[in-house]
Amino acid sequence: MLGLFLxxxxxxxxxxxFDSDYGHxxxxxxxxxxxYRLGNKEIGKIGEWGTRxxxxxKNVSCKYLLLGDSQVFGSGIFWKDTFSEILNRETKxxxxxxxxxxxxxxxELSLYQKVRTKISFxxxxxxxxxxxxxxxxxxxxxxxxxKKQTWYFRILSFLFPEQSRIYxxxxxxxxxxxxxxxxxxxxxxxxxxxxxKSTTNEKEFITQKALFSLSPDYFHGSLNTKSIAKxxxxxWYRILRKLNDEIVSANKELxxxxxPLEVEYDPEMFQVYKDIGFVMDSSWIKSxxxxxxxxxxxxxxxxxxxxxxxxxxxxxxDLLQLEDIHLNETAHRLIAxxxxxxx
Length: 343
Description:
- The termini are far apart.
- This protein is globular.
- It has a single domain (21-138, 204-341), classed as 3-Layer(aba) Sandwich (Rossmann fold).
- It has helices at residues 2-14, 70-73, 83-90, 105-115, 132-136, 140-147, 151-159, 161-185, 206-214, 218-223, 230-249, 267-276, 283-286, 290-301, 310-313, 329-341; strands spanning 31-37, 40-46, 62-67, 93-97, 123-129, 253-259, 306-308.
- By secondary structure, it is of the alpha/beta class.
- It has a five-stranded parallel beta sheet with strand order 4-3-5-6-7. A two-stranded antiparallel ribbon has the order 1-2.
- This is SGNH/GDSL hydrolase family protein.
């Protein structure tokens, strides 16, 4: 039995070097979905890839794909105020926003593989948000999904942990797709009520406190790539190498843009999270986290241009939406202006 166990684990380890089909989720294709900003609604058109359609393509000499999560998508603000739409209005290039809320690097690779031969582009901007390593790991939602799986899946997970995990992640993303469509049906334009946020001046930080209750190690699991986040960082880096190889083999360019967590630039939020109970590290906001150190090393080794937004966001407390983790209009304008200046 011991020999069989070691053999299975050996095969599982070797298989890490082969490609994996991660899968992704998306908005309902060719549909219209309501989005909100402080209770005000706008209807967003969703295209054939399940992503929101931006500014109509014009006669341009350059076309860029933007891969990312809700920060890139622009959750909580009007579409016209997202940095991608600002760039579409103010530059001679076309910026295709493929960001979807909740995306991980696995999803971004999967979506890229789906559209790469069907969309013309010159460059890919991969937006790495500070929690990407954490989200690549076994989040509470994913673990809850795993607990509901069959007994034989758990046996396979014991013998082949990594390959079973990749399979489980793919099934998990399929579940997220179903859940997303179910929830969006409740927000159909014909029966949606406008939701008004509380106007109280007292800051309760409900989102941040809920995050602590679910993941008290959230920040360490995101930024400490030498210790608690080491395994997830290795998984994340493997996916990044795959994405970079595919982009380079297509004679395209990859640019990485790092969007920091608020504890890496906002001193007020750093203290808020500390008061809530998160174990904090002053190096995150005063110098470099282990994640950004590793990211600098990787991009230099792979000759990938890196735009580190911490340089422009450091010690600012005006870049987040009220009681939220998402960037506001000021931050999106800042990012647009930075990208306009980069070659």
